[in-house]
Write a sequence for this structure.
C-alpha cells in the first residue's frame, strides 16, 4: 500500500526528532579526519539530493564498477566554476551504490583555509589532497575521490569545456600504487554549464587571493542570484576499474606513474565524448 502524503511528513518529523536527540545526547561518531556520517546522512545528502535528482536530473551509469567493499580511488574530471561536481558525485554514488558507500573527497588546501567551508568539508568526509591522507584512507578500506585537474579544471573558460586539463604529477597514482588500490575513472557531464565562465578577472583574483575570479552570464551582474546554478542535464558514468596490485613496486617509478595517469585521463576524456553524444542538449530533459 503506497504511503499517503501525511505518512511521509510523519516519517520526516520522526526522523528529524530522532536526529536532534542523537545530537543532543552525543550519540554519534566522528572519525579521525572529522567525518560525521550521521550529520552527512541527515542534513547534507538530503540537500544535495534535491540538486542532483530534481534540479540537474542526474543519470548515473556504471555504478557496478565501484567495488561493493574495500578501497578504490575514484578519479573524475573537474569543472563548473564552483566545484559542485565533487559534492554531486559523492551524494549520487552513495544513493545509487548497493552498499551506499561514502566517497571520501580530497580537496585543495584553499578549501580547508576557508571558514565554514572547511568545517563542512571535514564533516562530510573530506580531507586535504595529500598522499599521506589518501594512503591512510585507502589503507582503511575507504572509497577516495580525487580530481587531479584541481583549480585548472574548475576555473577553465566555457570555450574549453570538457577538455581535460593536465593531471599534475600523478600523485593520486602513487597513492593507489602504494596501497594496491584499483582506480575507477568517472566522467561527469553537466558541470560545465551550471556557471559558464566567460572571463577570468585575474587582477581581482590576485587581490582576493583566489585562483580565479569568474565572470558568467549571471555573475556578478545579478549579485547573490548569480550563484544559482543553471539547471543543466547531468550524466555520470563510472568506468571499469584499472587494477594496480601488480604494480605496487613501481610507486616511485615516474614512467609507470605517468603512463597510468595518462591512461586514466584518456579513459575519462573518451567517456566524456560519448556522454556528450548522448546529451546533445545541455538543458534538455
Amino acid at each position: 500500500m503506497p504511503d499517503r502524503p501525511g505518512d511521509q511528513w510523519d516519517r520526516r518529523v520522526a526522523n528529524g526528532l530522532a536526529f536532534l536527540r542523537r545530537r543532543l545526547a552525543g550519540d554519534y561518531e566522528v572519525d579521525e579526519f572529522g567525518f560525521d556520517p550521521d550529520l552527512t546522512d541527515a542534513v547534507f545528502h538530503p540537500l544535495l539530493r534535491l540538486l542532483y535528482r530534481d534540479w540537474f536530473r542526474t543519470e548515473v551509469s556504471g555504478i557496478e564498477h565501484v567495488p561493493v567493499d574495500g578501497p578504490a580511488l575514484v578519479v573524475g574530471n573537474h569543472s563548473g566554476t564552483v566545484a559542485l561536481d565533487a559534492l554531486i558525485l559523492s551524494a549520487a554514488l552513495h544513493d545509487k551504490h548497493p552498499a551506499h558507500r561514502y566517497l571520501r573527497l580530497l580537496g585543495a588546501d584553499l578549501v580547508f583555509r576557508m571558514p565554514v567551508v572547511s568545517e563542512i568539508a571535514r564533516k562530510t568526509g573530506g580531507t586535504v589532497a595529500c598522499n599521506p591522507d589518501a594512503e591512510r584512507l585507502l589503507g582503511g578500506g575507504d572509497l577516495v575521490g580525487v580530481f587531479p585537474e584541481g583549480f585548472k579544471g574548475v576555473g577553465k573558460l566555457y570555450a574549453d569545456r570538457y577538455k581535460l586539463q593536465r593531471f599534475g604529477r600523478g600523485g593520486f597514482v602513487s597513492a593507489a600504487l602504494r596501497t594496491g588500490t584499483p582506480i575507477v575513472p568517472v566522467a561527469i557531464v553537466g558541470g560545465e554549464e551550471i556557471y559558464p565562465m566567460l572571463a577570468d578577472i585575474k587582477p581581482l583574483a590576485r587581490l582576493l587571493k583566489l585562483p580565479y575570479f569568474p565572470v558568467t552570464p549571471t555573475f556578478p551582474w545579478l549579485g547573490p542570484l548569480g550563484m544559482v546554478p543553471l539547471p543543466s542535464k547531468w550524466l555520470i558514468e563510472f568506468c571499469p576499474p584499472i587494477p594496480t596490485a601488480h604494480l605496487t613496486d613501481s610507486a616511485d617509478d615516474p614512467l609507470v606513474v605517468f603512463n597510468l595517469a595518462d591512461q586514466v585521463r584518456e579513459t575519462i576524456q573518451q567517456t566524456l565524448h560519448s556522454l556528450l553524444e548522448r546529451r546533445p542538449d545541455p538543458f534538455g530533459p
